[in-house]
Design a protein that fits this description.
- It catalyses: a 2,3-saturated acyl-[ACP] + NAD(+) = a (2E)-enoyl-[ACP] + NADH + H(+).
- Belongs to the short-chain dehydrogenases/reductases (SDR) family. FabI subfamily.
- InterPro entries: Enoyl-ACP_Rdtase_NADH, NAD(P)-bd_dom_sf, SDR_fam.
- One of its GO terms (molecular function) is enoyl-[acyl-carrier-protein] reductase (NADH) activity.
- Its EC number is 1.3.1.9.
- By secondary structure, the chain is of the alpha/beta class.
- It has one domain: 3-Layer(aba) Sandwich (Rossmann fold), CATH 3.40.50.720.
- Helices cover about 45% and strands about 15% of the residues.
- The chain has a seven-stranded parallel β-sheet, with helices on both faces.
- α1 links the parallel β1 and β2.
- α4 runs parallel beside α6.
- The longest helix is centred in the middle third of the chain and has 25 residues.
- It is globular, with a radius of gyration of 18 Å.
């Protein structure tokens, strides 16, 4: 059901790879709620994914951009304003990648060059996005910038390795740039700490099925789906949350507040 929450708003959505992607669901729902937007992803990710299909469905243009490149981001924000006919109201940063995880490196045996790549792609790119948006004065007042995080920023999860540091940095950048952007343009900046979600990236983490099942048994409401996360993103892009900024917002079915659940007790007692 649509509520016209984003009627007249213009945005940029990073990271829609395929139908499993949270960014993909956000784009579909944003379109239903009246938004116009540009889709973007790194050229390599675009070749691997199905973003053209989403662009056709949402009547959106695609601008390839490497989010670690200030030059690419400058082109992205410049072209997006030309295409959309004005400044930007919302940005979704749904980007994360760890070469160490892809190569199966344990936490005690990280490749440090790859570690730096993890931080650059998964966290520092968020700073670069906002840096470029500020320098180009590309954001409308009361705009909303959002990134997707995970509770491994605060807790230890096996096999999540250097992505845990990347998510911690991502959340810190949201706070620091959130203060700056609020003072400059009343733009709000937040992160959503989402339940384990069966995306292409998520399922690439070792032991993901165990992560997912454990969280589902711990959460009173169960794991939040990609569709639920998309709906939450829309509320944060809308005018209904104008005073929410610099927050890491937990969207996890209650997982983060539970010490142990009856389901886990029952399973451990067998």
């Amino acid at each position: 059901m649509a509520y016209n929450l984003l009627q007249g708003k213009k945005g940029i959505i990073f990271g829609a790879l395929d139908e499993k992607s949270i960014a993909w669901k956000v784009a579909q729902r944003a379109r239903e709620e009246g938004a116009e937007f540009v889709l973007t992803n790194a050229p390599l990710a675009m070749r691997m994914g199905e973003i053209k299909k989403l662009a056709e469905e949402c009547q959106a243009q695609i601008i390839p951009a490497d989010a670690t490149s200030v030059e690419d981001l400058t082109n992205l924000f410049t072209q997006s304003q030309e295409i959309l006919g004005g400044k930007i109201d919302f940005v979704l940063h749904s980007i994360g990648m760890s070469p160490n995880i892809r190569k199966g490196k344990s936490y005690g045996d990280l490749n440090y060059e790859w570690f730096q790549k993890t931080l650059d792609v998964s966290a520092l790119s968020f700073h670069k996005v906002m840096h470029v948006a500020e320098k180009l004065d590309a954001m409308n007042e009361w705009g909303s910038i959002l990134a997707l995080s995970y509770i491994a920023a605060q807790r230890v999860f096996p096999d999540y390795t250097d992505m845990a540091q990347a998510k911690a940095m991502l959340e810190s950048i949201a706070r620091s740039y959130g203060q700056r952007f609020a003072k400059l343009k009343k733009v709000r900046v937040n992160t959503i700490s989402q339940s384990p979600t069966k995306t292409t990236a998520g399922t690439g983490v070792g032991g993901f099925d165990a992560f997912y099942d454990y969280a589902d048994k711990m959460s009173p409401l169960g794991n939040a789906s990609a569709e639920d996360c998309a709906n939450y993103c829309l509320t944060l892009f809308s005018d209904l949350t104008r005073m929410v900024t610099m927050q890491n917002l937990l969207h996890d079915g209650g997982f983060s507040s539970v010490g142990i659940s009856e389901e886990i007790v029952a399973q451990m007692s067998k």
